[in-house]
Write a structure and sequence with these properties.
about 120 residues, mainly beta, 4-stranded antiparallel beta sheet, 3-stranded antiparallel beta sheet, 7 strands, disordered C terminus
Length: about 120
């Protein structure tokens, strides 16, 4: 009897994972909107101020950037990196890269909230 109940519970759980929207206009909760035209980062420059340390990030192309520490313990350290980006909405991107020393960097950039030369302060 316990085995039958267990099997029924497993079937119900599996069926609930495969639910589809009731009409063709809705998307299942786990579906991601197709990515629209990518937001161009090439030519944009950002300044990240972490208090003790300040970095400049210059997006050289749609997959290459240059970062440079301009203040702090790592002042003068810099490198070119390959990056990936994913558009989250009309004005927001998720950007990430892995530096040569293995450090992974991930950022969410909202271009609508930026002003002027796209310089902003993080805390």
């Amino acid at each position: 009897m316990n085995k039958i109940i267990l099997v029924l519970m497993m079937l119900v759980a599996m069926a609930s994972c495969n639910t589809q929207p009731e009409n063709g206009n809705e998307k299942a909760a786990h579906e991601v909107e197709p990515q629209k035209e990518n937001i161009a980062l090439a030519g944009k420059k950002f300044k990240y101020d972490y208090g003790d340390t300040v970095y400049e990030i210059n997006f050289k192309s749609e997959n290459q950037l240059h970062w440079h520490c301009i203040e702090g313990e790592e002042k003068g350290r810099q490198a070119d990196e390959s990056y990936s980006s994913l558009r989250l909405n009309e004005h927001t991107l998720f950007v990430s890269w892995v530096e040569e020393d293995g450090l992974g960097v991930s950022q969410v950039i909202n271009l609508k909230k930026q002003h002027g030369a796209l310089l902003f302060k993080n805390r």
